[in-house]
Amino acid sequence: MARHDSGIMSVVGAVLLLLLFAVPLMRSICARVPGMLGGWIAALVAGGAVGVIQALIGMVVDGGFRGDIWPVMVLYVAVSDGIAFGACTGWIAGFAVLAAGRFHNKVPAGAGTARGGGGARAAAATAAGAAGAVVLLAAMNLTGPAPAAASRDMEAAAAEVMPADFLRARDSRITDGHGNQVLLRGANVNQLVDLYQHDPALPAVRPLTEADYAAMAGYGLNVVRLNISWSALEPVRGELDAAYLGRVKEAVTWGKKHGIHTVLDMHQDGWWNGPSPEDVQCRPGTEPMWGYDGAPEWATITDGAPRCQFTGRDISPAGNRAFQHFFFNTDGIRDALAQTWGKLAAEFRDEPMVAGFDLLNEPGFGESAPVTTAFKLAEFYGSAIDEIRDAGAQQIVFIEPSIFWSGLGFDTGPVPGFTKDGNLVFSPHLYAESITMDRDLGLPPFVSLERQFDVAQRVAAGYNAPLWSGEYGYWGEDADVLSRMGRYAAAEDLHMLGSAYWVWKQACGDPQNGIGPTGNGLMMEDCATGDDMEPMTDVLELLSRAYPKRAPGTLTSLSAAGPVFELAGSTAEPSCGLEVWIPGKARPALDGTGVTGVKLSRVQGGWSMTGCAEGSYTLNGR
């Protein structure tokens, strides 16, 4: 379907297809619904027909019925796109029909055929209107994305002035300033989130201490996605709360001490932490809900819409209305968050252990069509990036698609080309076969656990950006938890990627935990006593498997199971930047090619291997 970021031929092709279907529809539809509205409806129906054609094509290419995206989902996406395009451009057909009717009233009797003359004139007028549409949409395309080459030029220019110890995005890799590929593998930490507390006796978060970072380092983790709350950071508009900012800085310092990078994540779930009022009247099919976390009260505009959830916290009239006001910048609240990012980034612009800034966790979709959300989300991201760069912060910016990705396993994401900044990482949450709608409804996967990596990497390539999963896990309590986690680990290694597991600790009073007998997360809590329980050892063993924290040049293959691993890479320049984490007490036996100067150091929980590499190289550990 026509998208200004897909080029002029996309626009021309879509308009011509729309015409092909719209013209035959004119006569029958305009006979029943005369005038401009009839022309618009004809374009709407034609758009849906174009979507059906696209869906049929999608069912036989790229895996077709053998693929993991259900044909019904392909049909849904393609037809929705087509109808949206028809709705947006239907005014052209409507004006054409209106013009044809006026022209018909002025033509002397006998001019034209007795039968079908109106339809022919409408078709001709529509064709003329379509030519105007092509010109108009082509003009829109001129304001589309910056070419990938321009992005790379800006990235190269930024790399020249960025200190070598800062991480950066280079095409499909996250790298350091010495040409080494970096894998960031770790966990989400939600212990600074301003969460709604349902039970006054049960805290919504567990305390964050340096011991948490020491423990994570002992499992070989090298990154924390640190969830922070806008409501706590900026309770008063225009002023960052010094005490809360101090806690964020303290966490970054603990991470630095233990060799753990930080991704600062502006977290939200359901937009803000307000629950349903006690006297709320929810419509059938919806129910009162707890609060969660996110925006301050001054940035929450709901117009009195009910705080009632449908299937979960992310679909409520009040939450959707709040996101709608955010996307359309009511009272300047979208600009306010962008400016907040500028202020926050300025505090960390000189800290290389801050890997980057995740601008907004799982954005909602508001009350607009997904394609509109994609454009409005891109506008926010673009303005936030400008504020961050103006503040002198050069770190990576992590961008997310909407909450749809977490719920379906795919989404359109922000429109490509929204910024010329090249230091971006695409960061969807890879929850396929976990919290996605298909599993919740007991359906076969829309997108399989393995296929989600292919889908996400394809979208990342559209941004000319690396892929990094900001969240995954949450497998539940059934017997397949370890099986799914093992499959995820294998797929992650196959794609040579990093990620952040959800979640390190979850308090008994966390609304996402649901208040049960235990506080979930990797580090478990006994809700009856408040004491720590045995950690999720089986999952931690999979998380702490061997992996290269840094690898010279580009990794070309990777597989690991516990301390046993095989990796290969290639580097154009000799580098001594190879660093591999290996778990366990036993001293690993290593062999390989193209690797020299190998050193093994005993560290908490395992071993750190460093060495040099040149050309094509391999390394195996047993």
What does this structure look like?
With 622 residues, the protein is of the alpha/beta class. It has 16 helices and 19 strands. The strands form 5 sheets. The protein has a 7-stranded parallel beta sheet. Strands 3, 15, 16, 17, 18 and 19 form a 6-stranded antiparallel beta sheet that branches. Helix 1 crosses helix 2. Residues 109-119 and 133-152 have low confidence and may be disordered.
Question: Which sequence of strands runs across the widest sheet?
Answer: 11-10-9-6-5-4-12
Task: Specify the number of helices.
Answer: 16
- Strand segment count: 19
Q: Low-confidence parts lasting 5 or more residues at pLDDT below 50? A: 109-119, 133-152
Terminal Cα span: 51 Å
Q: What best-fitting shape do the alpha-carbon axes yield?
A: globular
Q: What's the overall average pLDDT, rounded?
A: 87
| Rg over alpha carbons | 27 Å
Query: What does the largest sheet look like?
Result: 7 strands, parallel
Alpha-beta classification = alpha/beta
**Beta-strand percentage?**
15-25%
What fraction, in percent, of the residue positions are helical? 25-40%
Sum this structure up briefly.
With 622 residues, the chain is of the alpha/beta class.
Secondary structure blueprint with pairings:
Elements (H helix, E strand, L loop, with lengths): L7 H25 L3 H23 L12 H36 L10 H26 L5 H14 L6 E3 L2 E3 L4 E3 L2 E5 L20 H9 L4 E7 H4 L8 H16 L3 E7 L19 E2 L19 E2 L7 H11 L5 H16 L5 E5 L11 H21 L5 E4 L3 H6 L15 E3 L10 H4 L10 H12 L18 H14 L4 E3 L16 E2 L5 E2 L10 H7 L3 E6 L1 E8 L2 E20 L6 E14 L2 E16 L1
